[in-house]
Amino acid sequence: MTQSTFKRLLLGITGGIATYKAAELVRLLVRQGVEVQVVMTQAACQFITPVTMQALSGRPVFTDLWDNRIDNGMAHIEFTRDVDAILIAPASADFLAKLAQGRADDLLSTLCLARACPLMVAPAMNVHMWKNAATQRNLALLKKDGALIFGPGSGEQACGDEGFGRMLDPEVLLEALEASQQPKLLAGKKLLITAGPTFEAIDAARGITNLSSGKMGYAIARAALEMGAEVTLISGQTSQIPPYGANLIKVTSAQQMLTAVMANLVSKDVFIAVAAVADYYVLNPSEQKIKKDAHILTLELAPNPDILANVMNLPDPPFCAGFAAESENLIEYAEHKRRRKNLPLLAANLIQDAFGGDDSELVLLDDKGAHPLPRAPKIILARQLLRHLARMLPKKPKD
Ligand code: C5P
Fold first, then answer.
1. How far is 194 from 248, CA to CA, in rounded Å?
2. CATH 3.40.50.10300 intervals, the chain
3. 122, containing H or E segment
4. What is the pLDDT of residues 114-130, one digit of tens each?
5. CA–CA gap between residue 260 and residue 252 (Å, rounded)
6. What is the pLDDT of residue 161?
7. Mutate which of 208, 256, 306, 362 to test ligand 1's pocket (most atoms within 8 Å of Cβ)?
8. Nearest CA to ligand 1 atom 21
9. pLDDT one-digit tens code per residue, 261-310
10. Are 208 and 202 in contact (CB under 8 A)?
11. What pTM did the predictor assign?
12. Does residue 88 contact residue 41 with C-beta atoms inside 8 Å?
């Protein structure tokens, strides 16, 4: 599990059926190494007990402004002193109204008013409460005051209604929290990314492919979105869930990938080729399944187009970055590939490190030399790679 960028969070829980999601949220945050101080409203305690939250957070839970466990009697200041942010999840319609008006009539609202840290809010309520003009007014005020709003999601509600108002699922909320903390170094930039393997048919049931989970390409797409980029992701067959907000184009073969890349290059600032493209395709694939027999089967293979080279050879290519997976002499072979492909930036990794896992190790190669990125989850490497790439981009945007 990835380390969080937050060290300490104050999690405020207000009344609503979505409090059960707050329990899972605390568990995930604690697993990411975050210290979570839970504060609950009286209404939240009707739905889930402080004991549950105490067990999950490993810290005493506070619900009352007049709690005499707080040494100096100044709970409203004490709890937010060293936290990185206050997160209210779930945030009820009533609590949004309180926040918008700056009311301070219980511990949680007082803490929010007395804070000197960012405020983040994950609303959860019935669809009609959400759509109500008063709620939308309060929300607009909160946004104007600088609060970050996450969700709500849409779907079936506990009351049986359908529509917006569901608190984001804990994993999705955590992703959104992390994304909000990333510097927007790629704001206004348009990125085209290839990911995953290509598959070249032999017959109706069989084919040639490369080992590739697609994890690195999808992580780069996600990190680029977090940094404010517009992302088109052209992907071979993978089981990865595409990051929210990416324009996903699914392809199968290298030829389809090339066609999709060329059709989507217009006005792109950056092209990152992460896909593991098969080097060859079968010249005459059979439409029907080839029957097995005892004879040797000979396949005629022809080389696939090099997609990255095709892009680099355009008269006005976007900024291009490639990947190289090598099994030995990593830096020497990869730097040779970078020069041959005339790439400003290439990320190299060892095949034994690269495939399938959630972690990897990269070396970034550019004209200034080799920049090793130590072993880390792929999303962390993706962010580091894109920070490096963002520094290399020309200042002038592409027309
Ligand atoms: O396969 P190879 O090691 O040459 O891949 C280096 C880079 O070129 C990778 O970024 C890969 O996505 C890209 N490539 C491509 N089309 C190919 C082969 C590789 O875009 N046919």
1. 10
2. 190-392
3. strand 119-123
4. 999 999 999 999 999 99
5. 11
6. 79
7. 306
8. 306
9. 999 999 999 999 999 999 999 999 999 999 988 889 999 999 999 999 99
10. yes
11. 0.83
12. no
- 334-342 contacts, C-beta under 8 A, 24 or more apart: 334/363, 334/365, 335/365, 335/370, 338/365, 341/306, 341/308, 341/309, 341/312, 342/312
DSSP conformation class of 233: E
Q: List all residues 6 or more positions away from 295 whose beta carbon is below 8 Å from its beta carbon.
A: none
- Of all protein residues, the one whose alpha carbon is nearest to atom 5 of ligand 1 is 324
Give me the catalytic one of 45, 112, 117, 159.
Answer: 159
**pLDDT range class, residue 398, cuts 50, 70, 90:** low
User: Residue type at 194?
Assistant: T
CB 167 within 8 A of CB 21: yes
Q: What is the pLDDT of residues 22-62, one digit of tens each?
A: 999 999 999 999 999 999 999 999 999 999 999 999 999 99
CB of 322 within 8 A of CB of 306? no
Mean pLDDT score of the chain? 93
- pLDDT of residue 395 exceeding 80, the answer is no
pLDDT at 356: 72
Residues in the chain: 399
CA-to-CA separations, 352 to 89, 175, 202, 256, 356, in angstroms, rounded: 41, 28, 27, 28, 10
Q: Which fold has domain 190-392?
A: Rossmann fold (3.40.50)
Per CATH, the architecture of 8-180 is what?
3-Layer(aba) Sandwich (3.40)
Q: Which regions of the chain carry the CATH code 3.40.50.1950?
A: 8-180
Say if residue 195's pLDDT is above 90: yes
- Asked if 117 is an active-site residue, the reply is no
